[in-house]
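Model it.
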Amino acid sequence: MDIDLTYSGLAALGSGLAVIGAGLGIGKIGSSAMDAIARQPDASNKIQNAMIIVAALIEGAALFGIVTTLLAVFK
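Modeled.
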């Protein structure tokens, strides 16, 4: 089996897992934020700010995973 094909397949799997993980994480954050806002509408600005910051950190981690897998393919 060609070693380059194996790296490409593993990189595609890694990228897919990174995207799925980021989607699940951001979905959980959104769900929890909506629950928190429903309980305390007065704190919605603080909750939304915290939600956006955490979502950006998750997106950064997912992007790092995708870039790492692409580097493995195009080394």
